[in-house]
Design goal:
- The chain is of the alpha+beta class.
- Helices cover 29% and strands 42% of the residues.
- It contains 2 helices and 9 strands, in the order βββββββββαα.
- A hairpin with a 2-residue loop joins β2 and β3.
- It is elongated, with a radius of gyration of 16 Å.
Length: 142
């Protein structure tokens, strides 16, 4: 039996996950981050993307976080996400439409455009689609 740590994934709306995990992988500002039992204390910002956990016993779960923070203290890892959902709950068609709309907005050179907002929407939609691809590749559905 692998050594575990307690993991909580919390969004502004609700607690998304709470349980024992063998491993957690997420994308931080400095790149990919992996956390297992014995990891050094850490507090860092998350960028939009997948959060993959390997639960006690080996089952894998994938979530999407739009950003936030990850904290590691002792045998506890906490993800404080702006928004978070199970990857299987992402609406692929809506994410694809949001990506296309953001790209169209950025390509439009006429009128007033909020480039910061459009860029953030593009990054979020792209990260959601990348999370879905990761889930599909792991399960052989893609």
């Amino acid at each position: 039996m692998a050594i575990t740590l307690h993991c909580d994934i919390v969004s502004a709306e609700a607690q998304i996950y709470s349980g024992l995990v063998e491993f957690l992988a997420a994308t931080g500002e400095e790149g990919e981050l992996g956390v297992c039992y014995g990891h050094a204390a850490l507090l860092t910002r998350l960028t939009p993307g997948p959060i993959r956990i390997v639960e006690q016993g080996g089952a894998e779960q994938v979530y999407y976080a739009s950003g936030g923070f990850i904290e590691v203290q002792g045998d506890v890892v906490t993800v404080l996400a702006d928004t978070a959902v199970r990857a299987d709950d992402i609406d692929e068609a809506a994410a694809e439409l949001a990506r296309k709309d953001a790209e169209d907005t950025l390509a439009n050179q006429q009128g007033e455009i909020d480039y910061g907002r459009a860029s953030a929407q593009l990054a979020e939609a792209t990260a959601q689609l990348a999370t879905l691809r990761k889930v599909k590749n792991r399960s052989g559905r893609g």
